Amino acid sequence: MILLAPMEGLLDHRLRDALTRLGGIDRCVSEFIRVTDQVLPERVFTRVVPELRRGGRTPAGVPVRPQLLGSDAACMADNAAVLAGLNPPGIDLNFGCPARVVNRHRGGAVLLDDPGQVHAIVAAVRRAVPVALPVSAKMRLGYRDDSRMLECAAAIAEAGAAELVVHARTQQQGYRPPAHWDRIAAIRESVPIPVVANGEIWSIGDARRCRAASGCEHLMLGRGMVADPGLALAIARPDGEAMDWDDVLPLLLGYWRAVAAQVAPRHRCGRVKQWLNLLRRRFAQAQAAYDRVRAVNDGPTFERLLLGAGGPTPGATKSCVSLAMSSSAPAPA
């Protein structure tokens, strides 16, 4: 099983749509939905996860599990109950976000210093939703260090989570290489639930090394999948044909058109530049496209220059338009 990771500020429902069209992804986790001290209205959940309006799946049919982030167990449970009423494929809980602004407000990875509270949150959410609805969690190895990682993993499992994703770095380590996949092995051996390995998987070779070091068959891909949209399929079918730029450009253009239709003008070009910035790790043509549009923030000029970086094949334009039109109804974001 290969999961698509949440990436706040980049991997939204539009990019999930694009990436899951290619195959190889078995399930997605949404960007986090921040829970503080109130019960959120349903429109907040469907704004972050519009897939909830179509059975909790992307247009390609891949299930999307909404993710909640917060530190108040009772409030998390109340919000999970509302979310459960929207019939998601499951609910995920965030104990891994390394962002300082989130951690300062007792969200994400900072909670790994308090296994008791981690247990309370998972247990409260588990009690608040139907038994048949899976509850999963994502954690890092720890906050400042990994000294409490086994306690936290045990707390999550004992509280009733059905699955645990582990990002193989602490909050302090951020996204700096390497990812410590061998530490995931200790967690996997200590809990009775499935463990999914995450962190620094950029290639088929990385996936193989991660599986060997962690002992985990299941993987979660984040930046590696955004940089190489064919990565999940390549891992699942290593003997298949590698994806090239002509396969990616129609998706990129379709993503741009979906963003242009739905996102506030000041943010539109930036979203696509973020994706291009990662794509240039894998594709030389993405570097050329990035150089063309880097200083551009005018929509029509942006699209013209994006196409000028190679241009789609004749059949690609139709695919791009189809991708844009299949996205959810316009809503500024």
Low-confidence stretches: 309-333
Query: What's the number of domains?
Result: 2
Order of helices and strands: EHEHEHEHHEHEHEHEHHHHHHH
Overall spatial form: globular
Keywords:
2 domains; alpha/beta; 333 residues; disordered C terminus; 8-stranded parallel β-barrel; 46% helix
Explain how this protein is built.
An eight-stranded parallel beta barrel has the order 1-2-3-4-5-6-7-8, surrounded by six helices. The chain has 15 helices and eight strands. Helix 11 runs antiparallel to helix 12 (265-279), helix 12 runs antiparallel to helix 13 (284-293) and helix 13 runs antiparallel to helix 14. Helix 8 links the parallel strand 7 (195-198) and strand 8. It has helices at residues 13-20, 42-48, 73-84, 100-104, 115-128, 149-158, 181-190, 204-214, 223-227, 231-236, 245-262, 265-279, 284-293, 299-308, 314-326, and strands spanning 2-4, 27-34, 64-69, 91-95, 135-140, 163-167, 195-198, 219-221. It is globular, with a radius of gyration of 20 Å. 46% of the residues lie in helices and 12% in strands. It has two domains: 2-236, Alpha-Beta Barrel (TIM Barrel); 245-326, no CATH class. By secondary structure, the protein is α/β, with parallel strands linked by helices.
Record the SSE blueprint.
Elements: E1 2-4, H1 13-20, E2 27-34, H2 42-48, E3 64-69, H3 73-84, E4 91-95, H4 100-104, H5 115-128, E5 135-140, H6 149-158, E6 163-167, H7 181-190, E7 195-198, H8 204-214, E8 219-221, H9 223-227, H10 231-236, H11 245-262, H12 265-279, H13 284-293, H14 299-308, H15 314-326
Parallel strand pairs: 1-2, 1-8, 2-3, 3-4, 4-5, 5-6, 6-7, 7-8
